[in-house]
């Protein structure tokens, strides 16, 4: 499913080695579990007519997954493009050679009895098959240990989602390394005349959960920024409703197609643009006296200087939006910010004096908009709006 979701982007960026290696990791991760499942093993063996034909296919998928992971990490870290290309090709051809060797060894060996779950230990002493199993486990171990070390050495140099991704990768590949260790222990015990097959058939599949963790680690850098955008989109809603919501009927917001419902970044950009347009429209109506009063009230209430500044600015913007809205003033009109109903923006139209001299420019970068949106809901802002409405009623 993850691979299918990436197909459109893969087609658009099919020449991007990072995108290709990422999609290969996702596809091969799922393929390893599918090919290793006993029902799939039985199906492959029956369709090919070759007992245990599923074994080299599963081993090849695991080996390819390790190679794709190494190549992805190399491209992800970057550096000199020539060095990246040389290193990734070295890993690619090395692991291709291992996959070919696994196929050749399987064809030279003899596996007449179908084994769906304990192929490793059942044929641990069979000529050529023994070498194939050891080769596959060694290649898998090298990929796991190398990837873990690369991720660990990089984890202190990045932040946020990339750091979380690397932490998941380290944990996942540690589990995957444990998978190889458990398999090696079971094989060694078999060679020494002991029967610890349960390690291979019961314990090893449990520690293979590392592949799932590793896949999640590779996906996190793509999903993480979208989560950030979605959270920011929601947090900007109060300010958006105040400046560009549907209540005023004088606001223009670009309508987006239903096809963009999953494009969080586009919707966030549209919302930020509408907010900035609204602030620009109100620039000539901002009363700095309102800001100063709300700022002093916030400081007296125990807010920090930054919080008080945001509250003061929010009060100034809310009062300006109140003066701009076209509807008439109800008897108990309020924008209802204290109870969260920012949509109800009440109007005083031309009755409110619009101060132009006290106007001030606003910082419209995203962090400032988030602070402003949070401050819009505070009681001090609501009090400033009600105070202005009371003054308007007295004038009228």
| Topology pattern, helix = H, strand = E | HHHHHHHHHHHHHHHH
Largest sheet descriptor: none
Strand content: under 5%
Number of distinct helices = 16
Q: Could you say how many structural domains there are in total? A: 2
Q: Report the strand count.
A: 0
Distance between the termini: 64 Å
Q: Give me the Rg, rounded.
A: 31 Å
List keywords for this structure.
single chain; 396 residues; mainly alpha
Describe the protein.
InterPro entries: DUF6545. Keywords: Membrane, Transmembrane, Transmembrane helix. It comes from Streptomyces populi. This is DUF6545 domain-containing protein. Pfam families: DUF6545. By secondary structure, the chain is mostly helical. It has two domains: about 1-225, no CATH class; about 235-395, no CATH class. Helices cover about 70% and strands about 0% of the residues. It contains 16 helices and no strands. α1 runs antiparallel to α2 (about 15-35), α4 (about 55-75) runs parallel beside α7 (about 130-155) and α5 (about 80-110) packs antiparallel against α7. The longest helix is centred in the middle third of the chain and has 32 residues, at about 160-190. It is elongated, with a radius of gyration of 31 Å. The protein starts with a helix and ends with a helix. Mean pLDDT is about 80; it is low at about 245-250 and about 325-360.
Secondary structure elements and pairings:
Blueprint: H1 2-12, H2 17-36, H3 38-48, H4 54-77, H5 81-108, H6 119-122, H7 129-154, H8 160-191, H9 197-207, H10 210-235, H11 237-244, H12 264-281, H13 288-300, H14 305-324, H15 366-375, H16 379-395
